[in-house]
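[Automated response] Your request has been received and processed.

Submitted sequence:
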Amino acid sequence: MKYTPTVGEILQAKGVSRRGFLKYCATTASLLALPPSMIPRIAAAIENARRPSVIWLSFQECTGCTESLTRSESPTVEGLIFDAISLDYHHTLQAASGDQAEAARHAAMEENYGSYLVLVDGSIPMGNPGFSTIAGISNHDMLMETVAGAAAVVSIGSCAAFGGIPAARPNPTGAVAVRDLVKDKPVVNIPGCPPIAMVMTAVLTQFLTFGELPKLDKHGRPVAFFGTTIHDRCYRRPFYEQGKFAETFDDEGAKAGWCLYKLGCRGPTTYNACATVKWNIGTSFPIQSGHPCLGCSEPDFWDKGGFYQPLSTGHFGSGAKLAGAAAAGVALGAVAAAAGRKRQSKYTKEA
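Generated structure:
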């Protein structure tokens, strides 16, 4: 019988130091809101795991989710964790094609029945099965066939989680999300356009460690990453509280890093870890780069009005109190600006 190396042996062979590995485990425990006492358990579980089988299905998507996972400045431990699983089927990354690729998918399903994970990116067209097919198989039929023997399903990106851009009005393909079709398996949504790579690998790590998926919110998202709004953790929030808002993308307020609320930032209504985990190995996120949040990890984000229009009370729903606070902040900013103009006028006259 062929020996299958453990994930720990694979990481060691790739040159990952013990210190770097434990740092990754500590970071993962922190992100998943687990106590420090769980770090050794996470480390032991990952080290001893033997390449869990993963089948990645890509449907109506742009490949951005795969790019998010694979495109980084340098190899990361979380990337190596993903390398260490048995990625048995992935349209973009696999070397096989045609009949050989489909044979690999079926072999993975049969050999790992009941234990493999299915990762899906892209929405599923229901208006006409012929809108999107792979190897002559409709996206719907391939999804339902593949998840039949899966332990769980992970929807990668907003298209798989909520329908995304393909499902935006008028939704010509009749696009739906994975959870609209899969009812008899645990389904985790990791939305974002694209999602953060660390969130993807943390979910896989929890599954490796505990054999179960993380606690989810009402939209099926991991609470550890989608439990608070971007606004709650945004470094620009003090300016929001002071009523200091950028009016345009190149005014003095924008240059000073003031709040982007007036430019349409959806951070107050968007639940994601962008402000804390960030992108490109923790380098930055859209708001830090000077662009308002588009709310891409929320259901139907594409149809919720103009991206560069300030959120109204109606957009806040149960968060209307926050909208009131924003209005108060805008008013406060106006008062401060008026006072500044009055002082400037006084000084000009005296001069």
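Summary generated for your ticket: The chain is about 40% helix and 10% strand. The domain at 51-225 is CATH 3.40.50.700 (Rossmann fold).
If you did not submit this request, please reply to this message.
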